[in-house]
Specification:
Length: 449
């Protein structure tokens, strides 16, 4: 099944169109590419296992710790294993082995690399040692090689984001420049904690741009370390970031923490046949949509997304109402007003039946609704249920473009108690005397839209 165009976040499209987006590519992008030895390009654990085998061939026995080291790879302690390999293998030996793998003449950019570089990102960051992204850019530019940078270049080019040309930033170094290669934990500590230029570049990039992660599982320890190191900037970051990930790779809790702690929202694709073909579909549609204005974008979407026959005649919009039990009277009256005006209302009292699993039923209601109306009062801001519903609506809105969040704020509420997630959203401020008059105006706006 091709990727559903409707699931491409509008904020991501806007960022790319306004030249405020960067792609960050991991090993998953290159793993389908086959080498001369008929093996696919390795991810990081596979690469470390190959280097362990190299060391073993060189008669290094790891002081009898080989089984423990291989277990460390399996358990994801990759930086420590990489550091051990860097200490037992000579740097020239590692560099030659990496060149033999990643400069293999059989390696060619595939259709995914080629469509990626067509999207108007201002630049691409990658942890990959291969040169496939650079190759795809070179094909696109009729043989003109893009600007390729590493951490060693930041003294000369302190802010690649201001370049007039597209750039590729090699987070782990350039395979054609062995002295720039980063492998072990000491390398990462030096670059992340001691290089002011590198840290400044990344903080600027994540603060003013939207980053799309492609080919990452978010279990890569180098990326985890990077994001943890940058965690201090998230509270002042106005941009959202997105992770394209196979459906089921992250559970709901992991997706929630990623969104709330790091402002990284997931875009999930299906991988039923194991080929990850929907990654190409997603990037293809992203390229098409960022080259069209709003009118033609809607026409384009309609060509690739058709409602099931059972839904084609359904025109009613729907709204989920989140509230504290202490404000139930207001919530019920608002629900009745919405229903009278043809809006389908989702409310726990109406929709959670005996025997239903409450959490999953509420989650389904939020995800299926067009609008999420939350009544903010001194009662609801102290409700754990309301807090959880706001978090889910916030995450779902950024991942699926709906539900649109509408905070209704009682004027008696102290403003500095408004949930942080809702601070950037326009509120509807009401009091006891005007609430239903203002709700009626709101309904007219919803129906008009």
């Amino acid at each position: 099944m091709p990727f559903n165009v409707k699931h491409i976040p509008e904020d991501l499209l806007k960022s790319i169109i306004s030249k405020k987006a960067v792609a960050f590519c991991g090993a998953g992008l290159s793993m389908p590419i086959q080498r001369s030895n008929s093996k696919n390009l390795p991810n990081w654990p596979q690469l470390l296992l190959e280097l362990i085998e190299l060391a073993h061939r060189d008669r290094y026995n790891f002081s009898g710790l080989l089984p423990e080291i291989e277990l460390a790879v399996k358990n994801g302690n990759l930086l420590a294993v990489a550091q051990e390999l860097q200490e037992v293998l000579s740097k020239p030996s590692i560099a030659k082995y990496l060149r033999d793998i990643f400069l293999d003449k059989k390696l060619k950019p595939n259709q995914t690399h080629k469509i990626l570089v067509q999207i108007p990102f201002i630049g691409i960051l990658t942890t990959n040692y291969d040169t496939l992204i650079e190759g795809a850019y070179t094909l696109k530019r009729d043989g003109r090689i893009p600007v390729v940078l590493t951490q060693e270049d930041l003294d000369k080019v302190p802010n690649p984001l201001k370049l007039d040309d597209e750039f590729v930033f090699k987070m782990h170094g350039d395979i054609n420049r062995p002295e720039t290669i980063i492998l072990g934990s000491h390398d990462y500590q030096n670059i992340l904690f001691r290089s002011t230029a590198y840290r400044s570049f990344l903080e600027t990039l994540f603060t003013i741009n939207t980053v799309l992660f492609v080919g990452f599982s978010m279990s890569d320890p180098d990326v985890e370390n990077l994001l943890e190191r940058l965690s201090g900037i998230y509270s002042r970051n106005n941009d959202f970031h997105y992770l394209l990930v196979e459906r089921g790779r992250l559970n709901e809790f992991e997706k929630k923490r990623l969104a709330l702690d790091k402002r990284i929202f997931t875009i999930e694709y299906n991988n039923h046949d194991g080929t990850h073909s929907e990654v190409y579909d997603f990037l293809f549609h992203l390229n098409e949509l960022t080259s069209l204005d709003g009118k033609y974008r809607r026409e384009y979407e309609s060509r690739f997304y058709t409602l099931p026959v059972s839904q084609t005649n359904v025109t009613r919009i729907s709204a989920f109402i989140s509230y504290s039990g202490h404000d139930k009277e207001y919530a019920v009256n608002i629900a009745e007003l919405l229903s009278e005006n043809g809006i389908h209302v989702w409310m726990d009292d109406f929709n959670v039946k005996v025997g239903d699993t409450v959490v999953s039923t509420i989650e389904s209601g939020i995800k299926e609704s067009d609008y999420f109306i939350v009544l903010l009062s001194n009662n609801s801001i102290n409700s754990d249920w309301v807090k959880q519903e706001i978090e889910l609506a916030y995450i779902t809105n950024h991942e699926r473009n709906k539900p649109k969040i509408i905070p209704i704020v009682f004027d008696s509420l102290i403003r500095n108690k408004i949930p942080k997630l809702l601070m950037d959203i326009r509120w509807l401020v009401v009091n006891e005397s005007n609430i239903f008059q203002k709700i009626q105006r709101l309904i007219e706006q919803l129906k008009a839209s």
